[in-house]
Amino acid sequence: MLESVRSLTGSPWIYAVVALSVVLDVFVPVLPSGVLVITAATAAAAGSTTVAGQVPHNVPDLLALMVCATAASVLGDLVAYRLAWRGGERLDRAIARSRRLTRAQERLGTALAKGGGLLVVIARFAPAGRSVVSLGAGAAHRKVKEFLPWSALAGVAWAGYSVGLGYFGGQWLGAGWLGTAVSVLSLFGAGSLAALLMRRPDAPAPAPAS
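The structure corresponding to this sequence follows.
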């Protein structure tokens, strides 16, 4: 799979593929959107060293990659949020049957009511956490002004972390499989930690904003 992604990194299509993957993985969490972002950033690291003063080309632009990943993350969150908002009784029954969704919905409501939504940011890194939080916020009819800023912050944090892993991994370990593998493992490590924090009964709920 990595070789297929690498073949795309020299094409402008990489941004469209990354954006589509990030939008859709709120509904299909197994999509490797993080791996795509890291691989593209690793390619950018490989092309950042100029040869004989030549400007590198055919590599993704880091800023464009981060903006693309962030925007797609927020868009996917909002699509899931709106679909859950309009889900009706069928979705309510589905959430009621899921202890995970019910608990996340309750904790998210408490966090947002207190003026903070750090849970949204943490959930962005956890496997399927983004789906649970976005659907929970919509099904609970939380106000968009309560959810959107935290979704944007989560998107920036996740995209920045993923791009940073790929770029610095490529700089320090090279643009081969080793640098990419270490970066991907670091992303999974952050996801495991986020999942652990989400499962805690006393998951972080920040103090009300002053």
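Confidence is low (pLDDT under 50) at residues 50-56, 203-210.
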